[in-house]
Amino acid sequence: MGLATINITVVVIYAIGIFGLAQWVSREKAGAGPKNSTDYFLASKNLPWWAIGASLIAANISAEQIVGMSGSGYAIGLAIASYEWMAAATLLIVGKFFLPIFLRNEIYTMPQFLERRYGPGIRTLMAVFWLVLYVFVNLTSIIWLGSVAVTKVAGVDQNVALVGLGVFALLYQLRGGLKAVALTDIVQVTLLVMGGLVIAVLTLGKIGEGHGIIAGFSRLMARAPDHFEMILDKGNPHYMDLPGLSVLIGGLWIANLSYWGFNQYIIQRALAAKSIDEAQRGMLFAAFLKLIMPIIIVLPGIAAVMLAPDLAKPDEAYPTMMRMLPPGLLGLVFAALVAAIVASTASKINSIATIFTLDVWSKFRKSDRGGSEQGGEAQERKLVLVGRVAAAVAIVLAILTARPLVGSSAQAFQFIQEFTGFFTPGITVIFLLGLFWRRANEPGAIAAAIASVVLSWAFKVWTPGIPFMDRMGLVFLAALALAIVVSLATPARRDRDTISTGDVRYATSAGFNAGAIAVVLVLCVLYAVFW
Q1: 53: Cα separation from own chain's centroid
Q2: Which positions ≥6 away from 199 have C-beta within 8 Å?
Q3: CA-CA 20 to 30 A from 86: which of 31, 60, 79, 507?
């Protein structure tokens, strides 16, 4: 299908507006001089809480999550919302226990933390790993699935959509770096929430047949009761995807801690905060937004069970619900979808540029650093230029490889997600020990990383009946035990460890504590009602 003129107009207004806003916030203030690496990669370490929280969600929610999670809502039901609701609890943990250490030690990137805690070898190893993962897995997935969604809704040729989304996201953040991304993400998230709520309200209203959205929700629960169970039992056909209590006390925690706490793509926003209090407020804001995400993403998929029961594929649920919107509103929701794609793509591009420039280029070009102030300024300008070039190269590589890597097979994306999960337990072990156990050393960390891949592969081949989430939990425990044994069996290298934790304050403000309690209470109520 194509878009009506009014819908196209809404989307064009959005594109012009968000691009103009990004350039406006990227401008250099009078007398401030050209951007240095801190300005470009960490937004001058001056982000307010609202920008941090909004940018965390905008970076996280993209086409694959909107379309894919809505499709899971159609196939599985509300249980898929655990990914969102458990993330809210994880954000509180990251804000209270991880960020104080990162910000106290002025950490810019996750590989930098690994070098200061363990040594240079693991920094290089993980920097290269993350670059490969971000460019050839994450970035290709975002723009490919984004182009699929745009093609389904707007009827645009997919190659045009693929190139258009990638180039727009690049140009949108190229001048201002993280500042352009983070300070405009409040607009992106507002549009995303509004668009999702519009679909939820209109679909429930249609199910309610004129009696309102409450009546529609009640009718939906009555007609599809199996779609409103949060904890699946072993007899459920989708137990392998969401294995019962593991979503509360098992492997989902491993994935969440790795993603929200140790992923440059996500944590970079908090590292750019004005202060620890501002960073924690941002994490709390993101946690509250996570509580409402299932209404925006999952509920339309469940509504499609009644409104479009004969879909060929579950992933068609969200685009199908979008097609029910009247002209104008369809343009608004489509703009929200594009906003989610562009925001995630721009965030990923910026993180790739940050890791390449600060963890790879700077490390191997130390001789370029000038000793004088003038030389230092020249080097800083070079770092910003290198970051911009790296961003451009990354998106070109992603555009060229998206089709063969992600689009060549219907199972490609699922394989990629599982492949990424091979590394998740080891990454979580390395960082948790690095943060909270002083005796951990580089041999132990490398052993955990290797064990994570080897054991994940072994479990997948020899015990295919174990759910993926349970497998992550078991591999995490094994890698943790191995890291502890190897660290105790090898000499400690105190000279390599420059991370200070003795004077770190974990106390949080009364506002954060009250908000955290509110989030936990809401989660308890949600799980009690929909257990």
Answers
A1: 12
A2: 296, 300, 318, 321, 322, 325, 333
A3: 507
The per-residue DSSP string of 267-291 comes to HHHHHTBSSHHHHHHHHHHHHHHHH
Structure tokens, 376: 């230092």
Assign residue 187 a region (left: φ > 0; alpha: ψ between -120 and 50; beta: otherwise): alpha
Give dist(CA 185, CA 172) in Å, integer: 12
**Residue entry with tokens 């002209």:** 327
pLDDT tens digits along 351-390: 898 889 888 888 776 644 444 344 467 777 788 888 889 9
Kindly give the interhelix angle for 329-355 and 49-60, rounded to the nearest 10 degrees: 100
Backbone φ and ψ of 309, nearest 5°: -70, -10
What is the tens place of the pLDDT at every residue in 202-217? Answer: 888 888 887 888 888 8
Phi-psi domain of 44 (left: phi exceeds 0; alpha: psi -120 through 50; beta: other): left
The pair of three-digit structure tokens given for residue 524, joined into one six-digit string:
């308890």
Question: What pLDDT is stored for residue 199 in this prediction?
Answer: 86
Angle (nearest 5°) at CA 344 between 508 and 108: 50
Cβ atoms of residues 118 and 496 within 8 Å: yes
Q: Rounded to the nearest 5°, which phi and psi values hold at 273?
A: -70, 155
Name the phi and psi angles at 81, rounded to 5. -65, -15
Given a cut of 70, the residues of the chain with pLDDT beneath it are 1-3, 28-37, 39-40, 43-44, 63-64, 365-376, 407-419
Handedness of CA 175, 403, 267, 53 (dihedral sign): positive
Pairwise CA distance, residues 205 & 214, whole Å: 8
N-term to C-term CA, the chain: 39
Give residues with Cβ within 8 angstroms of 479, minimum separation 6: 425, 426, 429, 447, 448, 451, 452, 455
Amino acid making up residue 357: T
Contact 271, 42 (CB under 8 A): yes
